[in-house]
Design goal:
- This protein is mainly beta.
- An 8-stranded parallel β-barrel has the order 22-23-24-25-26-27-28-29, surrounded by 5 helices. The protein has a 6-stranded antiparallel β-sheet with strand order 3-2-4-9-6-7, with no helix packed on it. It has a 5-stranded mixed β-sheet with strand order 40-47-46-42-44, with no helix packed on it.
- It starts with a strand and ends with a strand.
- The relative contact order is 0.08.
- It holds the Pfam family Glyco_hydro2_C5.
- Belongs to the glycosyl hydrolase 2 family.
């Protein structure tokens, strides 16, 4: 069997109608997959996709590639495996339609056999479209990887091996394997499957074999149960991964196909008295919601970028991710398996009622089972996946029809995989809009905006979510779930312990500004298994929902949660789109009990005393810096986050006072002082005893700095180059941003350049960008093995460069 990446040699451009004349602007351009067709399009305040996508337009796009089909493929089956095409993808070969996949997040196969012309070049084209079909930035095009597969007509299909561990003890585990064999010939075939289980250290620990007879043009499933003695259990702290190697042999004993799949051995339990348990140990979910885009890369999904996101999120204290509001990429699932991060994978944002003009609601009644099967097939072998979410803030959830859909979807998930739990992100207010009154038009989106409604409701929302109306109308939809997900409804946590004593709850979506209140409830209430903040990693679209506005700014006008153009990012992530942790991330780490040292967050002196407007998704715009372009003596507000009774603030060894922690917000001490260059030190004490300290120092002579996260990368990987304006000790000057330009020489190319600035008109394509708080990130992609040099320049400072080796 041949299975190889099918990423090079493509072109992409606007899809022209049959009678449209081409123009220079519509000419196809060479691209390497994965690729986001809309990332570099011209943004505009007039974009009809508006705030949802960050004012990025949509369109219809065509990808094309010519490839040779040799004569010796006549006796093979040839297919393309697409991990995701956004959206409404149609694949053609030599002008003939092969397959249509409406869902932009499903993996799918295109079987090319009937359309190939052997012994000559063949042309494959893929159409994709994105237009007012999402409430966030979806990207467009072939944004996830593609593989070319050339196999025997009798073969193991994509996701053909399913592995579960139904019986797990400390001294022994049963591994149950089911492999599908597909026969595309006209003859019945009897073959033999052999399975080998490989331990995390690479040794073989169990093997089994079975014959399988497959009728013409059909499939058959062969099963085996293998025992693994003294198994290494997969957990958050010790993510041990086993592997199953599968070999399919023909009647003559020759192997005609192989497959390999990683899995973990672990036991899941959940109940209202003991919460969520993994391998018998209670686990509270320190969760982050994440969208699927990769910031400066747009929606293009690279394994290296997904790995980096998961790694940095876990390092920031999260042990669980919710894929919002669509199925997670295979690359991110693999990373979650490796790092020990638990996953709530979500099916969809809509069922049968639309949220935006051209979303998937119209096709959902006819496609839902296909989508469920695609989700489960992708996830079933991943030990990180512990819950399937059947939806998010579903509009019809509180109706009789919505309750029927809830039951139908939950049971379909269980039919496909009964080894995980089923949940749903329920928002009782959204589900009862027709009874509570629809949100006002935001004026920015041109459509009703539930985000604005929730942001303006304040404490009224908590009371509404705890109302008898929500209790009664959502009871049936909640009753079909194993774990009830509540979005912004912590007011139900204690109430439901009395009303529904067997109900298990997870905070499937919560405001970041309230984490200290959320986590107190999670820790105190056994039936509440965790909290998922919105969001762990910042993202494109839903532009400006976490912004901080200064209301005395000329021309300021309230816009609800809709950030006016040129807002691009949501601005609500614990970690910004470049991977840099914002102050809220350190506050959360302290709330989680994972950090004892205090953290210093300084409000920009230039804004001192100015009135602000925020949303429930906002943090403040403080920065951990004591380097400011302010006159000595300028007033400044300093926040210190600490798990302590009190904090003393010192400047160059002189005390600036002692403040109690928690006076106005838990885990925070606030100081009003004056800015003077030097060393600012925070000392945290409990019971009069020092429990931790942290310091900030004013930067010295500032230069241009560049550093690469990994100096050696694989040919299919990415290089991440951090750019900063910093002194010789690495202290960053956050208040002196400037335009920097990036050049890449050698065996790599620049594929993304950006900052965490949420309001910008700069392109991610580079080659230049203005630093934000003194930082930027360049992402390079190898063009082959060898080496590359990344050089960063700016006016008035010496250039900085780093080298990478590509292996």
């Amino acid at each position: 069997m041949i299975r190889e990446p099918f990423l090079e040699g493509w072109t992409a451009g606007p899809k022209l109608g049959a009678f449209e004349a081409p123009t220079p602007e519509s000419a196809p351009r060479p691209v390497r997959l994965p690729h986001d067709a809309v990332r570099d399009l011209q943004r505009s305040a007039d974009s009809d996709q508006g705030v949802h996508t960050g004012y990025v337009p949509g369109g219809v796009f065509e990808y094309a590639k010519t490839f040779d089909v040799p004569d010796d493929w006549r006796d093979k089956t040839v297919r393309l495996e697409f991990e995701g095409v956004y959206r409404d993808a149609v694949v053609f070969v030599n002008g003939d339609a092969v397959v249509h996949e409406p869902n932009g997040y499903n993996a799918f196969e295109a079987v090319l056999d009937p359309y190939l012309r052997h012994g000559e070049p063949n042309r494959v084209t893929v159409e994709a479209r994105a237009h007012r079909d999402s409430r966030w930035y979806s990207g467009a095009g072939i944004y996830r990887p593609v593989h070319l597969v050339v196999a025997d007509p009798v073969h193991i299909p994509l996701d053909g091996t399913r592995i579960t561990t139904p019986d797990v003890d400390a001294d022994r585990a049963v591994v149950q394997i089911a492999t599908t064999v597909r026969n595309t010939t006209r003859h019945t075939r009897t073959l033999r499957l052999t399975w080998t289980v490989e331990t995390p250290d690479g040794s073989d620990v169990a093997t089994g074999t079975a014959p399988v007879t497959v009728l013409p043009h059909s499939g058959a499933v062969a099963r085996v149960r293998l025992a693994v003695e003294t198994p290494s259990l997969w957990s958050v702290d010790a993510p041990a991964l086993y592997r199953v190697r599968t070999a399919l042999a023909g009647e003559d004993g020759d192997v005609i196909d192989t497959d390999a799949a990683a899995f973990g051995i672990r036991r899941l339990q959940v109940d209202a008295a003991r919460g969520l348990r993994i391998n018998g140990e209670t686990v509270k979910l320190r969760g982050a919601c994440v969208h699927h885009d990769s910031g400066p890369l747009g929606a293009a999904t690279f394994a290296a970028a997904e790995d980096r996101r998961v790694r940095l999120l876990k390092a920031a204290g999260f042990n669980a991710l919710r894929s919002s509001h669509n199925p997670m990429s295979r690359a991110m699932l693999n990373a979650c398996d490796r790092y020990g991060v638990l996953v709530m994978d979500e099916l969809t944002d809509t069922w049968t009622r639309s949220k935006v003009a051209f979303d998937a609601a119209a096709s959902f009644p006819g496609r839902w089972r296909h989508d469920v099967e695609a989700l489960v097939a992708k996830d079933v072998n991943h030990p990180s996946v512990i819950m399937y979410s059947i939806g998010n803030e579903i509009l019809e959830l509180a109706t009789p029809a919505g309750s029927a859909w809830s039951r139908r979807l939950a049971e379909a998930i269980r039919e496909a995989d009964d080894t995980r739990f089923v949940t749903n992100g329920i928002n009782g207010i959204i589900a009862n809009l027709d009874k509570m009154g629809r949100p006002e038009d935001s004026g920015e989106t041109g459509a009703a905006d539930p985000n604005t409604m929730m942001a303006t409701m304040g404490d009224v929302m908590a009371r509404a979510n705890a109302s008898e109306l929500v209790t009664a109308s959502t009871e049936e939809s909640a009753s079909v779930l194993d774990v009830v997900g509540f979005n912004y409804a912590e007011s139900r946590y204690e109430l439901d312990r009395e009303l529904f004593p067997n109900r298990v709850i997870v905070g499937s979506e919560t405001f970041p500004s309230r984490i200290e209140k959320m986590w107190e409830l999670v820790e105190r209430l056994d039936h509440v298994v965790g909290d998922f903040t919105w969001t762990g990693w910042d993202y494109l679209g839903e532009a400006g929902i976490g912004r901080v506005d200064y209301t005395d700014e000329p021309g300021y006008a309230p816009t609800g949660t809709a950030g006016p153009y040129p807002h691009l990012l949501a601005g609500c992530g614990d970690i910004d789109i470049t991977g840099f942790r914002r102050p809220v991330s350190y506050y959360r780490e302290i709330v989680f009990g994972l950090r004892t040292d205090p953290y210093l967050a300084v409000h920009p002196p230039r804004h001192h005393g100015r009135p602000t407007a925020t949303t429930p998704w906002s943090w403040d715009d403080s920065v951990s810096s004591w380097t400011w372009g302010a006159e000595p003596g300028a007033p400044v507000t300093v926040d210190v986050y600490a798990p302590a009774d009190e904090v003393e603030l010192q400047l160059d060894g002189v005390s600036l006072g002692v403040t109690a922690v928690g006076a106005d917000k838990a885990f925070r001490a606030r100081f009003e002082t004056e800015y003077r260059p030097g060393e600012l030190v925070a000392i945290a004490r409990s019971g009069g005893v020092e429990v931790g300290r942290s310091a900030l120092r004013t930067a010295g002579d500032v230069g241009l700095a560049a550093s690469v996260e990994e100096a050696e990368i694989s040919a299919d990987g990415l290089g991440f180059v951090a750019i900063s304006l910093a002194d010789a000790d690495g202290v960053v000057a956050v208040d002196a941003d400037r335009l920097v330009t990036v050049r890449v020489d050698g065996d790599a190319e620049l594929v993304g350049l950006g900052t965490g600035r949420i309001r910008t008109e700069e392109s991610f394509a580079g080659p230049s960008v203005t630093t934000y708080n003194g930082r930027a990130l360049a992402i390079v992609r190898p063009t082959g093995p060898g080496s590359a040099t990344v050089t960063v320049t700016t006016d008035g400072l010496a250039a900085a460069s780093v080298s990478l080796t590509v292996s």
